[in-house]
Amino acid sequence: MNETTTTLTSTSATGQGLLAGKVAFVTGAGRGIGAAAARLFAREGAAVVLAARTETQLKTVTEEIRAAGGTADHVVCDLADAASVRAAVDRVVDLHGRLDAAFNNAATIVPPGPMDRVAEEDFDRVYAVNLRGTWLAMAAEVAAIRATAGTGAIVNNSSVGSWGANPELPVYGALKRAVNSLTESAAVTYGPEGIRVNAVAPGTTLTEMIREWEHDSPGVVERLGAMTPLRRAAEPAEIAEAAAWLLSDRASFVTGAVLRVDGGIRV
Questions:
Q1: In terms of residue numbers, what domain contains 198?
Q2: Annotation marks residue 190 as catalytic
Q3: Which of 172, 190, 213, 245 is catalytic?
Q4: Cα–Cα distance between 227 and 91 in angstroms, integer?
Q5: What phi and psi values does residue 154 have, to the nearest 5 degrees?
Q6: E strands, 83-140, in order
Q7: Would residue 19 count as lying in a domain?
């Protein structure tokens, strides 16, 4: 914690961070990759607005960033609720007068198992958050960027499980593949306006979601690690680093990409 705090304060003070001067919106920011991204984006100089459903988690991360010298606010947001999504993005503009960058990270998962054993209510829930919620967020973010900053960047969080067969998480994989398609289509649509849209596709990452999967399928983390050339899982901060680069001006000629951040795994 002390090391992170020092880095945050130093980067913010110098104004030389990867995202210096930008206003960034992060969904699913209360924990896991989203929380790591919020901390990193602030360290890299962005004013960050965190969004998630659980306010206690949001407050904790927001206070950590502020204590470290970063600029952060939070807004409670349910990605399954269109009005909530629009209100969250509007809040960013109310706070900072603009939106430059957005990381659509929030997602949920279904219990692992064959497609015919997925409950209809689980399918509907994952669809509402992982695909419909991402679509709603992108639409609101494009409108906000267009109306304020004029140009900007969006990164969606996909998954290595979006490629090929995914028999253990078939619905999750299918909807993440749809996120890839939305990403690529949006890149073509909004590129002429100077709005870049990309995605990151994480491999095994040590988040609460993977721990839930491990609970339901003991040994899955070890098995996936054995299939990964780097022979380990990622830390959430490692995925956040890729998202930060894609949102930054250093990736100014990158759009429509789904960047694998997976340790080389091929599943």
A1: 2-261
A2: no
A3: 172
A4: 43
A5: -130, 135
A6: 101-104
A7: yes
Note the residue count of the chain.
267
- Establish if 168 belongs to a structural domain: yes
The CA distance from 247 to 222, in Å, is 32
Q: Return the CATH number at 113.
A: 3.40.50.720
Summarised one tens digit per residue, pLDDT across range 193-212 is 999 999 999 988 887 777 77
Q: Which amino acid is at 233?
A: A
Decide: 123 and 110 in contact? Cβ < 8 Å. yes
Report the C-alpha gap between 72 and 48 in whole angstroms: 5
State pTM to two decimals: 0.90
CB 163 within 8 A of CB 177: yes
Q: What angle do CA 40, 46, 49 make, to 5 degrees?
A: 85
51 vs 111, more confident: 51
Tokens found for residue 55? 């306010």
Domain tally, the chain: 1
Distance, CA of 126 to CA of 173 (rounded, Å): 11
State the helix-helix crossing angle for 133-147 and 170-190, rounded to 10 degrees. 20
Residue 267 lies in a domain: no
Give the C-alpha separation, 160 to 166, whole Å: 10
> Taking the C-alpha atoms of 219, 230, 174 and 57 in order, what is their torsion angle to the nearest 10 degrees?
70
Mean pLDDT taken over the chain: 91
**Token couple for 180:** 């890839």
Q: Is residue 227 part of a domain?
A: yes
Amino acid at 167: P
Count Cα atoms within 13 angstroms, Cβ side, for 19.
Answer: 34
Position 267 confidence tier, pLDDT thresholds 50, 70, 90: low
Give the separation between CA 56 and CA 65, rounded to whole angstroms. Answer: 15
Q: Which residues contact 83 (CB under 8 A, 6 or more apart)?
A: none
Can you point out the beta strands (E) in the chain? 23-27, 47-52, 71-76, 101-104, 152-157, 195-202, 258-261
